[in-house]
Specification:
The complex is a heterodimer of chains A (353) and B (242). Chain A is mainly alpha-helical and 353 residues long. In chain A, 72% of the residues lie in helices and 0% in strands. In chain A, α2 crosses α14 and α4 packs across α12. The relative contact order of chain A is 0.18. Classes of the chains: A mainly alpha (353), B mainly alpha (242).
């Protein structure tokens, strides 16, 4: 009786929590079985991973340095997924964002305060990422190129572009090197308190970006339009919504937010531009958003878990002589399990998700 | 002198093409049935690793090949299960599997990284291999290479001249008509996905057993990591222009 009222009051969360439980059970169970077959104790792995992620403040702040670009990319992807677009070009958008930011930071200060110049640089990052996102969007609208192929192609272009910049026009004093450009002057690094490995300002930016995305997508007319286009592109024009324009705008905003992630990698983490600036965070964010079932709510916590896995796995080769790619195995298993459980739920309820 | 280097270059191209040909053919079969298997990248790496480890442990490259094909088929079975039967986005499943398989290959294969193992010996065809230039370039490779090129006309015949190929294409292009004729398109798609996946697995085996012998965890694998994405597009290109 009480259980029934409870279910009526909270119909969705109960189901969602049960699904989440199933997903975790499936994924961790699968990985544990694999480890047991190999003769490795899952408990050892779990303690090593937790120790590596939250063993000390220094380690946890490393987790946060991964969390910042991951959540920014995920927010960007929420826009495009909501519009029904598979923005696999996110890696390229991160790279272009990093390039835009670097361009401003390398330029003349014109007497601007360093803080202002950094802000301007991040805006340039937003513009760079947005530009790359719109390229994929335009290719789709005007050329009929599927956004997956267009995005992948643009990723390769971005990769080539950043290599050319680092080895060509922006090369180091004296010798061009794959290790990146010269370091920026100290005052253009985002300030970091002693003992921190993550700039507090970047955390604030990430949290603001998430709140902004959540608000736009769930509480504004524009968010509703994006949702309409994603859910039923054929019906959207009946309400005067242009699917191509809305999709393009979603790509531009999504790419821009991903571009900020690239910009923060440049100003806060590496203090220079280097070839693997995106570090695969874009692809990882795709997994995050899929695991979140394309909803905004669970994204921050999943990002935190994935970041903890990625950071904690650095300890694996040191203390257990295991390859650190295990974290990727766990992340991938979670996503496949999520697709399985959500798909099973969908087929059980007859297609209504 | 010029002749020899040209022949060697041509030969290297032919060898490097073998896994790409196999993977693209596998993907073509899958796509003709109306399924997109995006897990190619990870699937090839995992199959390459499994094939090499099995071959190294048993000393039998043929067993390695079989293991690679089975691995590819299993990965494709997951795509078919979630993407076809449960109706989830095939792109999403394939993408997630790409990363799962890639990391699984790195993790499981790290113990066998950079060790010597068996491989397919080059098998010059009698008479043909003695031809100038062409002989060295085309007819003195391992079994896997010949197999991959024999697979092209075989797949063409299968898809366009055989009854099974007709059913497969019907399931991809017009599932309703297929259904009306008493053939379950879901079953056909599942079979095509798994069959194509097995060929992709074979491509992985060809890579680690014939083209670039051995398994090296990060560097070699990462060098090739960007490539398979293009294999998918090449497969898509073949699909339209065959």
């Amino acid at each position: 009786m009480i259980m029934n009222t409870f279910r009526k009051l909270l119909p969705l969360p109960v189901n969602q929590i049960r699904d989440l439980f199933l997903i975790v059970l499936l994924a961790l169970g699968g990985v544990s079985v694999l480890l047991l077959v190999l003769g490795i104790s899952p408990v050892d792995i779990a303690t090593t991973l937790t120790g590596g992620a939250i063993g000390s403040w220094r380690k946890f702040s490393h987790v946060l340095t991964v969390w910042v670009p991951l959540i920014l990319c995920s927010c960007g992807l929420l826009f495009t997924f909501r519009a029904g677009l598979w923005n696999i070009g996110i890696e390229g958008q991160v790279i272009l964002g990093a390039i835009g930011t670097t361009m401003v930071l390398r330029g003349e200060g014109h007497g601007l305060a360093p803080g202002l110049q950094i802000a301007l640089a991040l805006a340039a990052g937003f513009a760079g990422g947005g530009l790359w996102g719109s390229c994929a969007g335009l290719l789709k609208n005007r050329g009929g190129v599927n956004e997956i192929f267009g995005g992948l192609g643009l990723n390769f272009v971005a990769q080539g572009f950043i290599l050319w910049l680092i080895l060509g026009p922006w090369k180091r004093e004296g010798i061009a090197s794959m290790s990146g450009t010269d370091l920026f002057p100290r005052e253009l690094w985002m300030s970091m308190p002693a003992g921190w490995r993550v700039a507090p300002a970047s955390l604030v930016i990430a949290i603001c970006a998430f709140l902004f995305s959540w608000y736009i997508l769930n509480a504004t007319r524009f968010g509703l339009r994006i949702k309409a286009v994603g859910a039923n592109p054929a019906a959207a024009p009946l309400y005067g919504i242009r699917p191509d324009r809305t999709g393009l705008l979603a790509m531009a905003i999504g790419g821009g937010i991903a571009g900020i992630a690239g910009g923060l990698q440049v100003t806060c983490v590496y203090h220079r531009l280097l070839p693997p600036i995106s570090s695969g965070y874009g692809y990882l964010a795709l997994l995050v958003v899929m695991l979140a079932n394309y909803k905004a709510g669970p994204v921050p916590i999943i990002c935190l878990l994935f970041a903890a896995l990625a950071a904690g796995s650095i300890q694996l080769p040191i203390s257990l002589q295991l390859d650190s790619s295990l974290s990727g195995v766990i992340q991938g298993a979670c996503v496949v399990a999520a697709l399985l459980v959500h798909g099973w739920r969908k087929s059980k309820t007859g297609g209504a998700s | 002198m010029m002749d020899v280097s040209f022949a060697a270059l041509l030969g290297a191209i032919v060898v490097m093409a073998a896994p790409i040909v196999l993977a693209a053919l596998g993907e073509t079969i899958t796509e003709k049935a109306g399924v997109v298997n995006l897990s190619l990248d990870g699937s090839i790496l995992l199959a390459a690793m499994v094939a090499f480890v099995v071959a190294a442990e048993t000393g039998q490259p043929v067993l390695g090949c079989l293991a690679g094909a089975v691995t590819g088929g299993l990965v494709a079975a997951i795509v078919a299960g979630i993407g076809v039967h449960l109706g989830q986005s095939q792109v999403a499943v394939g993408f997630a599997l790409t990363f799962l398989c890639r990391d699984l290959a790195y993790f499981l294969g790290s113990g066998h990284s950079r060790v010597e193992g068996p491989q397919f010996e080059p098998l010059p065809l009698p008479l043909l291999a003695d031809l100038p230039v062409v002989g060295k370039a085309l007819f003195s490779h391992s079994v896997m290479v010949y197999l991959s090129f024999a697979a092209i006309p075989l797949c063409g015949y299968f898809l366009y001249r055989s009854r099974w190929g007709l059913i497969l294409r019907a399931a991809g292009e017009n599932p309703e008509a297929c259904w009306a004729r008493g053939i379950d398109p879901i079953k056909v798609r599942t079979a095509a996905t798994i069959g194509g996946g097995a060929m992709v697995g074979l491509a992985g085996a060809a890579y680690s057993l014939a083209v670039k012998p051995g398994w090296a965890t990060p560097r070699a694998a990462r060098a090739s990591a960007g490539l398979p994405w293009r294999w998918l597009s090449s497969a898509a290109g073949i699909r339209s222009g065959w």
